[in-house]
Amino acid sequence: NAGVTQTPKFRILKIGQSMTLQCAQDMNHNYMYWYRQDPGMGLKLIYYSVGAGITDKGEVPNGYNVSRSTTEDFPLRLELAAPSQTSVYFCASRLGQGMGYGYTFGSGTRLTVV
Amino acid sequence: GENVEQHPSTLSVQEGDSAVIKCTYSDSASNYFPWYKQELGKRPQLIIDIRSNVGEKKDQRIAVTLNKTAKHFSLHITETQPEDSAVYFCAAYYNTDKLIFGTGTRLQVFP
């Protein structure tokens, strides 16, 4: 198992550009999440999904969109990049609902918007 | 609202001393509380967790305690070593769907 795979690892965007951050997991996990981590700060939930075809907003969804057409993939879309979106983005997944199902994190995507 | 407060934000200890990090959650329905360790430039890694039906859990030098009445939980690291230096995050489940993280504690262990 590869676990949770994120691509790209690094990216520099110009203000107003768009991009998609890719996240894939091969563990047949139902739940998937996108967090952002600003320098020296904690993890803020952007969007999450409890299964294919179902997505929901987290704490900081503005400026982002997601889709979940398959169990394996959960891409995060930035439409009009802004400097405030400079951050490290972590994708995570877990098996299902209930206690004891901890997260598996991807290795992160470091995004800089200039 | 959904909130997890974590203190202190930074903690410096001498090698061999103990370190304690404290968190408070707001939703009395939260039932699972993991702790993550994040080394510089790396992803968060789960180090220990506790469920709401347990008051304390220990794994070698690491222990976590939970006070459901006060909605507090704490991480205790004994006999600290330089390799314990990292940022530690507490978290709590809300609505059993998502983890809300604390703001993190930067632990520095000096030799």
Give a written overview of the molecule.
The complex is a heterodimer of chains A (114) and B (111). Chain A is globular and about 35 Å long. In chain A, strands 2, 4, 5, 6, 9, 10 and 11 form a seven-stranded mixed β-sheet that branches. Chain A has a four-stranded antiparallel β-sheet with strand order 1-3-8-7, with no helix packed on it. Chain A is 0% helix and 49% strand. With 114 residues, chain A is an all-beta fold. With 111 residues, chain B is mainly β. Helix content of chain B is 0%, strand content 59%. In chain B, strands 2, 4, 5, 9, 10 and 11 form a six-stranded mixed β-sheet that branches. The N and C termini of chain B lie far apart (41 Å). The chains are: A mainly beta (114), B mainly beta (111). Chains A and B meet through strand 4 and strand 5 of A and strand 5 and strand 10 of B.
Main traits of this protein?
heterodimer; A: 114 residues; mainly beta; seven-stranded mixed sheet; B: mainly beta; five-stranded antiparallel sheet; 59% strand; globular
Could you provide a short overview of the structure?
Chain A is mainly beta.
Low-confidence runs of at least 5 consecutive residues of chain B: none
Rounded to an integer, what's the Rg of chain A over CA atoms? Answer: 13 Å
Order of helices and strands of chain B: EEEEEEEEEEE
Number of strands of chain B: 11
Which class of secondary structure composition applies to the elements of chain B? mainly beta
Helix coverage percent of chain A:
under 10%
Q: What overall form of chain B do the CA principal axes indicate?
A: globular
Major sheet of chain A: 7 strands, mixed
Sequence stretches where pLDDT stays below 50 over 5 or more residues of chain A:
none
Radius of gyration of chain B: 13 Å
| Element string of chain A (H = helix, E = strand) | EEEEEEEEEEE
User: Approximately how much beta-strand content do the residues of chain B carry?
Assistant: over 45%
**Percent of residues in β-strands of chain A:** over 45%
Mean of residue pLDDT values of chain A: 92
How is the biggest beta sheet of chain B arranged? 6 strands, mixed
What share of the residues of chain B lie within helices? under 10%
Number of helices, where a helix is a run of at least 4 consecutive DSSP H or I residues of chain A: 0
Any idea what the shape of chain A is?
globular
